[in-house]
Amino acid sequence: MYPLYPLGGDRWVGPPRPAGGVGTFFCTGTAVKTTYIYGMERVAGRLDGIHVLLVDDNEDARYILERVLHHHGALVITAANAGAALAVMEQVRPHVIITDMSMPGMDGLALLARLHELPGQGERPTPVIALTAFPADFARRRALAAGFQTYLVKPVDPGVVVAEVERLAQSGGAPVDPNQRLY
Questions:
Q1: In the chain, how many H helices and how many E strands?
Q2: CATH for the stretch 36-171
Q3: Which DSSP state fits 14?
Q4: Contact partners, residue 107, CB within 8 Å, separation at least 6
Q5: How many CB atoms lie within 10 A of CB 11?
């Protein structure tokens, strides 16, 4: 079973299939209940109504972050690679994108460049959070200079992810100062 998220009216969008295929689909009908991590009930949260596109080639990382964001009220669409993320972006414009920086094929920097080429991304591009396992300061500066609004290092504190998604959704993607250390 794949969770569906409201797209508008009676249209719903589902995430790409876990195998990483593009598989985005639409259907009409009534609301579909989404699942949650055992023992983690969904709460009325800080992210109610915020749509997040989560891009990571690591299935476990995707699953955990999706559950955390959903727990706080976000509507999350996941993509296993940059190509799947671009396919989703042709159909939906999320409030915030979170992407892994090191993915096979197209990495996070290349994905960001492609996202900026999409229609409607000119004046107010969708804010993008870089997620990485590399804490090097030069990589952080490079990512922020390329246009990422935030650079988070794995393993990331779930509260930090929630706070950054909330901040970016409310601010419309105002970037941080590359010299400022947030976390």
A1: 5, 8
A2: 3.40.50.2300
A3: E
A4: 82, 101
A5: 13
Q: Where are the domains of the chain?
A: 36-171
Q: In this structure, are strands 75-79 and 96-100 parallel, antiparallel, or unpaired? A: unpaired
pLDDT tens across the length of the chain (183 residues): 345 454 444 444 444 434 333 333 333 333 322 333 333 444 446 898 899 999 999 999 999 999 999 989 999 999 999 999 999 998 888 999 999 999 999 999 999 999 988 887 767 789 999 999 988 899 999 999 999 999 999 988 888 999 999 999 988 654 444 444 443
Q: Classify the phi-psi angles of 39: left when phi > 0, otherwise alpha if psi is within -120 to 50, otherwise beta.
A: left
108-117 and 137-146 helices, crossing angle to 10°: 10
Residue given tokens 């929630």 in the structure block: 162
Strands 150-153 and 25-28: unpaired
Q: Find the length of the chain.
A: 183
d(CA 50, CA 120): 18
Please name the residue that has the structure tokens 């999706």.
66
